[in-house]
Write a structure and sequence with these properties.
Strand order of the largest sheet: 1-3-2-4-5-6
Number of strands: 19
Order of helices and strands: EEHEHEHEHEHEEEEHEEHEEEEEEHHHE
Distance between the termini: 99 Å
Structural class: alpha+beta
Largest sheet: 6 strands, mixed
Number of helices: 10
CATH topology of the largest domain: Phosphatase 2c, domain 1
Oligomer: single chain
Helix content: 25-40%
């Protein structure tokens, strides 16, 4: 029959439990052995429970889980070894230290005890000094275990909080991606004499690339490709602001246009418009970001295209016969040097010719060997896709880049503006 005995006082200078062992369970079919152990344990300030069998001990463990168990090995019914196994199978909020009391000293017998879940052994008859020393050793282990458990709990709690924040941030980024994609509301348009297709694909949720088109009177259109330095939210916010400065829906805000006295909007020279953007960025926008840009003024009647390049990759021109050339002189990015000057150049488009304004994510796409695609690789793709047109060409270009990169994800945003010139009366 099990019973509980406790004592509130501690003997000065004998904190054998180290503050982590308070409740001790003594299990032995010998009443005398239980009394000897209990006397020492109570003298050291422990709360002691006694059980005369393994069955009684299991019931006590379920009702009052002990910090330390001291159990005789040889007992009728449920042996100390089997009791230890059953004890380890029980759910515990904290680890219980288990000491087997035995007269056995054979190494094989000790191994059996360890396999059953025992932490330590004491040889009967038990020496009081050795008992206190073994309890102190157990206390150190329990202290480390509980400290580790608490640290793990704090880590899990922190990870749960971080996961909640991540989920919230991920949801916000998904919405941000939708908003950024909405900046390019029109991905394709047929102007009769020419067709324009736009592609925008971010490496992450949001990116720093932007493409667009806007009308300039009845027979001219403006095209642009932008690549803001860096990646992520701050770059995306920059593109959102730049979209307003090259707006297709609000010409009053478009820096590439100026309003005449009679209320019409006419184009500024592309180099002049970029210089205005540079002054605006340097004087009004407190940002460390800069961006590259190609701005084009396209005459749909004549096929004449006036461009200005500000650090953006050289646009590709593919002629009707399939040959590819890269045009432009490079230039400085926007937002780096106050008072920077920008040049412009022209290209004459003929029926069947096409112009591709692309970001550096295209030509700097890394292959499986680490080599970059570069202009030669892009030219080869354009020649291979000579018969592919419009959005299908841009989608095929992305597929070719994925094929070139292998299993690797794109490490940069990919964007493009495709102008396909048909000319007056050119069959579509």
């Amino acid at each position: 029959m099990a019973r509980v005995r406790s004592r509130a006082e501690e003997v000065a200078g004998t904190d054998a439990g180290g503050g982590v062992i308070q409740r001790v369970l003594v299990v032995d079919d010998s009443r005398l052995q239980r009394r000897i152990l209990t006397a020492s344990l109570q003298r050291w300030g422990f709360e002691v429970q006694e059980a005369e069998s393994g069955e009684d001990a299991l019931r006590l463990c379920r009702d009052h889980p002990p910090d330390l168990v001291m159990s005789d090995w040889m007992m009728p019914g449920l042996s100390g070894l089997e009791f230890c196994r059953r004890f380890r199978e029980m759910p515990h909020e904290s680890y219980g230290y288990f000491i087997l009391l035995t007269s056995k000293s054979d190494k094989d017998e000790v191994a059996l005890g360890l396999d059953a879940g025992a932490d330590d052994f004491l040889t009967k008859p038990v020496n009081a000094a050795e008992l206190r020393a073994r309890i102190s050793a157990g206390a150190r282990i329990l202290r480390m275990q509980r400290e580790l458990t608490e640290k793990n709990r704090l880590i899990k709690s922190t990870l749960d909080e971080l996961q909640t924040l991540y989920d919230s941030l991920d949801s916000d980024l998904i919405e941000a991606k939708k908003l950024q994609q909405s900046l390019v509301s029109e991905r394709y348009r047929d102007f009769g004499a020419a067709e324009v297709s736009l592609m925008l694909q971010s490496a992450g949720h949001v990116g720093g690339d932007l493409v667009g088109m806007f009308p300039i009177g009845a027979t001219r259109i403006g095209l642009y490709g932008i690549d803001v330095s860096g990646h992520g939210i701050s770059s995306a916010l920059m593109t959102a602001r730049l979209a307003g400065y090259l707006s297709a829906s609000v010409p009053e805000q478009n820096l590439a246009l100026r309003k005449t006295r009679d209320g019409r909007f006419v184009a500024r020279p592309p180099a002049q418009a970029i210089a205005m953007l540079n002054r605006l960025i340097m004087s009004e926008m407190e940002t460390e970001h800069y961006f590259t840009l190609v701005l084009a003024d396209v005459d749909l009647e004549s096929g004449r295209v006036i461009l200005s390049q500000a650090g953006h990759p050289h646009p590709a021109v593919q002629r009707a016969d399939g040959t590819v050339e890269f045009i432009g002189a490079g230039g400085l990015p926007v937002g780096l040097i106050d008072g920077a000057e920008f040049e412009q150049f022209e290209v004459q488009m003929g029926p069947g010719d096409r112009l591709l304004i692309h970001s550096d994510g295209v030509i700097e796409c890394a292959g499986q060997t680490g080599a970059l695609l570069q202009e030669e690789g892009l030219a080869a793709i354009l020649r291979e896709l000579r018969q592919t047109r419009g959005m299908a060409l841009l989608e095929s270009l992305v597929w070719k880049l994925s094929e070139f990169a292998g299993d690797a994800e794109f490490n940069d945003d990919i964007s493009g503006v495709l102008l396909e010139f048909k000319g007056s009366g050119f069959p579509g």
